[in-house]
Amino acid sequence: MRALPILLSILLEIQFYVTGSQAEHQQSSSANNEVAKSSAGEDKGEDVIEGPIREVLAQSGSTANLPCKITEPGAGTVNVITWMKRKNRRLLTVGKSTHSVDKRFVVIHSSTDWLLQIRVVTVQDEGIYECQITSHPVQRNFVRLKITEAYSIIPGAPDLHVKQGSSLRLECQLKAAAESPLYVFWYRQGHMINYDEEPGVKVELTKNGSILMVNKTKPSHGGNYTCAPSNAKPAYVMVHVIEEEEKPAAMHGGDRRNLGPAILASNFLVSLLAAVSWRIPSFTSLYPT
């Protein structure tokens, strides 16, 4: 019987604890109305954002430009423009000054534009950014930044066979790129060949990559080729140069090493018969008359 009161007291304490936690949670939610949406909800994001979201695509390692435009500045009022990242409510800039310790965030101001520039962006910079103008009413602009990591391919890889004397064309193509490369370096066996004055070899930069051309391939043109764009992961291909077949013996000055097996066998047989006939005595010597 003594166990029953103890059990009831424990249940009451649990109920009071749960009730107090719920009340405390509701108070904190009303005090920070915008922060109440946790980071889990912020990743989904759209349910706490009022207004359109502009999409900006940037390439990893490049510079991202996030626009913010004041539509109605308001006469006689001083507007303060701030940039923040919505996921963690991190304040990045205030006016023209960078508030964050990360100096990659810079505001570029011109007329009614307050552009946020993020230099050397990484995948961790992805997310929704908010530009807020303290006008009346308050203006908010939202930008979703997406980061793409570009890579390159060489059609025909990993192995490409080309006949000696024919032309060779290697194309380096960029994939998932948001901008054209500043340069594309080509390497053969680890040696850069872009600026080599090699006869018959030409490198041409294109909008989405580069093209390497060889007019007449030689055995020395074989090997591992690498294309390395300035803004994408490199690509590789192994080029095998197939040497042309040996010419017939008549075109090689009678070189016996180039004779076919049947010809060699017949020549050997003729030589053997000649040697044997020279050593066997004639019938007249065996049976004198």
Automatic annotation (TrEMBL):
Protein name from the UniProt record = Zwei Ig domain protein zig-8 isoform X1
Pfam family membership, one: V-set
Domain Ig-like stretches: 46-148, 155-238
Is the keyword Ribosomal protein assigned to this protein?
Answer: no
Please give the organism.
Answer: Apis mellifera (Honeybee)
Is NAD tagged as a keyword?
no
Gene3D superfamilies in the record: Immunoglobulins
Q: Which UniProt keywords apply?
A: Signal
